[in-house]
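name: query_chain
kind: protein
chains: 1
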Amino acid sequence: MNMSFLQKLCVAALFLSPASALAQGTVKIGVLNDQSGPFASYQGVGSVIAARMAVEDYGGKAAGKTVEVVAADHQNKTDTGIGIARRWYENEAVDAIFDVPNSSIALAVAAMSAEKNKVFIGSGAGTALLTGEKCTPNTVHWTYDTYAYGRGLGKAIVQQGGKKWFFITADYAFGHDLEKQASEAVKASGGQVLGAVRHPLGTADYASFLLQAQASGADVIGIANAGDDTITSMKQAAEFGLTQNHKLAGLILGMNGLPSLTLKFAQGAQIMNPFYWDLNDGTRAFAKRFAERIPSKAYPNDMQAGVYASVIHYLKAVDKVGGATDGKAVVAAMKEMPTDDPLFGKGYIRKDGRKIHPLYLLQVKTPEESKSTWDMLKVVGTLKGEDAFRPESEGNCPLVK
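structure:
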């Protein structure tokens, strides 16, 4: 029996998945990060707020559809993170996932996003593998990576005379990669790596690790971890008196941890960063609005700023493509268009998915230099994006021929 067009339409509707049905009316983005552990104050609710600010500033719609932001806590567990990503993609019509600190989880989410033809945009994620051997046509790596931070800071400190290094490293993919990049930069610049020690995520007592660093004969202690681990290890190093004879290099020393570390202990420390709230009128205006919305009243860091900027560019691409359902097409559009936003300025996205923008060498101010709670850093150097990030030809990304 031949069915009429209306009958066929009704039958098709019966078999339409809940996710497909939901996708008809919205563009849905998910912010996946640590909301309760060592990275919670560095991304956490701040990244969710940044994403919602971006949607509001864009006008709330893309490709004629309402844009919705959802969020979840991956608890720094790979199985939890990938489970959330799968649920979002298969059952809840999420089109793109943003942020994802913790490189092991980020790599898993990137692979799933390619498998499901969705979009993954890493801001909190650090591993340079995302634009290297593990690159996909569905991934954009926005804010920073272990190559840029490790190599940039390693080279800068050796040039300032810090030639003998010892690393205290987080024992997972991100920490290993960060130590590797910094070590290579130190050696290439004429320095030496005298040793390294690994610690679990969330370590509370660094005494044994610091004693090994002290006994090594190094004059620079490279802190190759992130979040609360960085603050705890640097604070204990200062309490042990190591800062009297050693330079501490916090390779991922986030601004949000400085108030608890205090300028007294952190003064003089240097970090690489593509964003600081006090760079210009645009960054200052964003920081003021952000601080009014976050319960802690904290100013935004680079990774939260990266979520804002990348959401804006993603929505531009969705508009250009005419929809969000084809993740590969959306990422291709993101690469075709130059980037331009008030937080990172003008830039672009390479074939391997690496977002290119300048990096700043920032130094922690002395207590006397600081004029307010979040007035903690000053720019002491600028590195062009093309010089800061790994050359595209050296990453072994399959997308680059």
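note: The chain is about 40% helix and 20% strand.
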